[in-house]
Write a structure and sequence with these properties.
alpha+beta, 9 helices, 253 residues, 4-stranded antiparallel β-sheet, Jelly Rolls
Length: 253
């Protein structure tokens, strides 16, 4: 069971435009946008939101809210001892308003003087987090989640600039607030190969250049192009070119 502690709910209603400048919280925060359209920046990335959307910000995350029209929000803050809380940062749509109903219930419970208030609020909070996670997973799988667009030129530059090393595609996906599985799917849709296949292609292309233009031996070329062993390099090279690296070099001479 996740060890968590409910902190507070805040209700805000603004009859005129308002901007909440960049800030952080020591707690996790779930903001529900009851009505109003606007933007929020999470770690410098821009998301749009509308009525019946919610945003999740992890503790310590820099974020803001830009509300150019009247708006109403319900903010819930909480602590969680579980280090990898299964919620993604970003903006998501609460289509059937199930989450909205639970958050209103949480606010009502938090304002009561019942001796069981703490138990009831934390049980309700757990239900909110489970519901929010289900919404996120569904929208992530269907592509409905409001996320920043992936700058594919930046992604390719990141790979091209570090292909000689271990490339952590999970971290790259996280940079754009995507799960790795979703990122891999979108990458393959755009480039017709997976991220790892593209990385391998770049390594082998550079290896071909080194074989033709230098006198480096096969082992040295393998390490310079990101392979852990010369045998792994030779196997991948043969699969791509139909011959060993030595045969490739000899054929070109």
């Amino acid at each position: 069971m996740i060890d968590m502690q409910f902190h507070h709910t805040y209700h805000s209603e603004h009859a005129s435009p308002i901007t909440i400048f960049e800030h952080t919280h020591p707690c996790h925060e779930l903001v529900y946008f009851v009505y109003g359209d606007g933007l929020t920046h999470i770690r410098g990335k821009e998301y749009s939101y509308h009525g019946n959307c919610f945003a999740f910000y992890r503790a310590g995350t820099v974020h803001d809210e830009v509300n150019p029209v009247p708006c109403e929000t319900l903010s819930t803050t909480f602590l969680c001892e579980f280090p990898d809380i299964p919620l993604e940062e970003g903006v998501f749509r609460d289509g059937d308003q199930k989450l909205f109903s639970l958050i209103r219930k949480l606010r009502r419970l938090s304002l009561t003087s019942s001796p069981h208030r703490d138990v009831l609020t934390e049980a309700c909070l757990a239900n909110i987090l489970v519901t929010a996670e289900k919404i996120q997973k569904h929208q992530s799988n269907s592509g409905e989640a409001e996320r920043p667009k992936i700058n594919w030129s930046t992604v390719i530059d990141m790979i091209d600039n570090s292909y000689r090393e271990e490339v952590n595609f999970h971290e790259i996906a996280s940079e754009f607030h995507y799960s790795y599985n979703r990122f891999r799917h979108l990458f393959a849709e755009r480039f017709s190969v997976s991220p790892h296949e593209y990385l391998l292609m770049r390594r082998l292309e550079h290896a071909e250049t080194l074989l033709l233009r230098t006198k480096l031996n096969v082992t040295e070329i393998a390490y310079r192009t990101g392979f852990n062993t010369s045998s792994a390099f030779s196997k991948a090279f043969r699969k791509r070119n139909g011959m060993s690296p030595k045969e490739y070099r000899q054929l070109a001479r």
